[in-house]
Write a structure and sequence with these properties.
Layout lengths: L1 E9 L4 H16 L2 E9 L7 E4 L11 H14 L3 E5 L4 H6 L5 E6 L26 H10 L7 H18 L3 E4 L2 H9 L7 E3 L20 E5 L8 H9 L8 E5 L5 H11 L3 E3 L5 H10 L2 E4 L9 H8 L4 E4 L14 E4 L4 H13 L1 H14 L5 H13 L2
Helix pairs in contact: 1-13, 7-8, 7-11, 10-12
GO molecular function: glycosyltransferase activity
InterPro entries: Glyco_trans_4-like_N, Glycosyltransferase_grp1
Protein name: Glycosyl transferase family 1
């Protein structure tokens, strides 16, 4: 198979980028001849041919020059199949239709949401509506997109054009059941939508699991409002000072300074390790007692959760979006109502205090993580790309 991949970003940061970083070399090892085009490249997947085509970013109109460059790449490479990974330029997605078979991979909310995160700007509540007329209403009532301005309608039309381009793909791969349902509600033919969870490479799995003493909560991810680090700090601040855990943060972003300041006010010991590679994140989970995924948006999947499970750690999370793709309350972790910081504090304290419960949930989490091995994801994606 000659496979042309169009990816929004390549590099080590973000769930989408890390998933591509393991999927694409695995497809090549399976026998595909892979050529990658990307809007931005921080680091190309090992051993793959990758080049930049600066197509339009998510708020800009489609770039005809980029579409022409994609056509040129198709003529030069003559691919059998194309994979578009969260490409936000409708013209580029349409250009890929000249390839015999096209699969569009949805990793997050942006293809079906003018805001990009399905959160109402004024209230922070998560949107449950499909792309379309409701977006206009909520631009008026909640400040979605650009608020009550003409350019909101322009942006909505661009998202609808992208949706229509995605609908023309032969198949759509969604990161979770939640994202798959969103695609269907937004107008993608249900028969074309397939759930392929984000995978983990074999070295992500601990064997044996490293046991650690109680007292550390690990958070891994971008430090932005949607990921909820500030909410986690406030929750830990509710735990009695005598048994309050340390919080280790693996990631960086605009909310880190505020979260650090809040931790200081609440006497929460926060250690920020900054942006680190996946191996360092795994080491962090190995040092931690439990992991927290306090995302305040409807998390499309939550890769950090299965990374923690693969290291033999129980996870506490807000129950929203695609979290239920891997978290089962009372089975491999604890799920609490979205935004309920008192409940999050109680769940963390319960796991920190109850060694038997924590061990049971962590052991089951490690077993459940096996569902996210790289091999099955590669098989499923290969079948979609080949039409098998």
């Amino acid at each position: 198979m000659r496979l042309l991949v169009a990816a929004e970003r390549l590099g080590p940061l973000g769930g989408m980028e890390r998933a591509l970083g393991v999927l694409l070399p695995a497809l090549a090892a399976r026998g595909a001849q892979v050529r990658v085009l990307a809007r931005t490249i921080a680091a190309p997947p090992s051993g793959l041919d990758a080049s930049v085509i600066s197509w339009a970013e998510e708020h800009a109109p489609p770039d005809p020059a980029a579409a022409n460059a994609v056509h040129d790449a198709i003529r030069a490479f003559a691919p059998d199949a194309a994979l578009a990974a969260n490409v936000m330029d409708a013209g580029v997605v349409a250009a890929l239709r000249s390839v015999p078979r096209v699969v569009y991979q949805v990793h997050d909310h942006r293809p079906f949401c003018p805001n990009g995160d399905r959160r109402f700007p004024r209230t922070g509540a998560n949107c449950t509506h499909a792309l379309g007329g409701a977006c206009v209403l909520h631009a008026l009532t909640d400040g979605c997109a650009y608020g009550p301005r003409p350019r909101t309608l322009q942006l909505l039309r661009r998202r609808e054009a992208l949706r229509d381009a995605i609908a023309g793909a032969d198949a759509v791969a969604a990161a979770s059941r939640y994202v798959a349902a969103l695609a269907r509600r937004s107008g993608i033919d249900a028969a074309r939508v397939n759930e392929i969870p984000m995978p983990l490479p074999d070295d992500a799995f601990a064997s044996p699991v490293v046991e650690t003493p109680a007292g550390i909560v690990a958070f891994a991810g971008r430090v932005v409002a949607q990921k909820g680090l500030l909410s986690l700090v406030r929750a830990i601040g509710r735990i009695d000072a005598a048994r309050r855990p340390r919080l280790d943060v693996y990631g960086d972003g605009p909310e880190l300074a505020e979260a650090t300041a809040c931790a200081g006010r609440l006497d929460v010991a926060l250690t920020a390790f900054g942006s680190v590679d996946p191996a360092a994140v795994r080491d962090g989970f190995d040092r931690a007692t439990v992991a927290a995924v306090p995302s305040l948006w409807a998390e499309p999947f939550g890769l950090a959760g299965i990374e923690a499970h693969a290291r033999g750690r129980a996870v506490v999370a807000y129950d929203a979006g695609g979290i239920d793709a891997w978290l089962r309350d009372g089975r491999n972790g604890l799920a609490v109502t979205l935004g309920d910081e008192a409940a999050l504090a109680r769940a963390l304290a319960r796991l920190l205090d109850d060694d038997a419960l924590r061990t049971r949930l962590a052991t089951q989490g490690r077993a459940d993580a096996e569902r996210f091995r790289l091999g099955p994801a590669v098989d499923a994606l290969w079948d979609l790309l080949s039409g098998g």
